[in-house]
Amino acid sequence: MITLDECLSLHVVMAQRNHVRLEWRTPYPVLARVRPVAWTCFCRATVYELCEGGGRAFIQRTVQLDADNEVHETSVGSILEARAIWAALLSGRAR
Asked: What is the mean predicted confidence (pLDDT) over 46-53?
């Protein structure tokens, strides 16, 4: 079992009481070439990835289930907007 001291990636803090609820959608391949540029640790059941490509970006959420993974994404926006949402997500101001 991995301890938090051994993790190399970021961890999302608990959602704040007045956090913004993000709209999560079924993945739709909008961008032809996209890559994750930041991600949270895979030691948690829910993993988040900040994905960028072609000057656009979105956040992908993967819930790791026993049988399968459940994947959702935010809508595609500018890199600046997605990075602001990413910071809010990590700090518990968005979920």
From this structure: 96
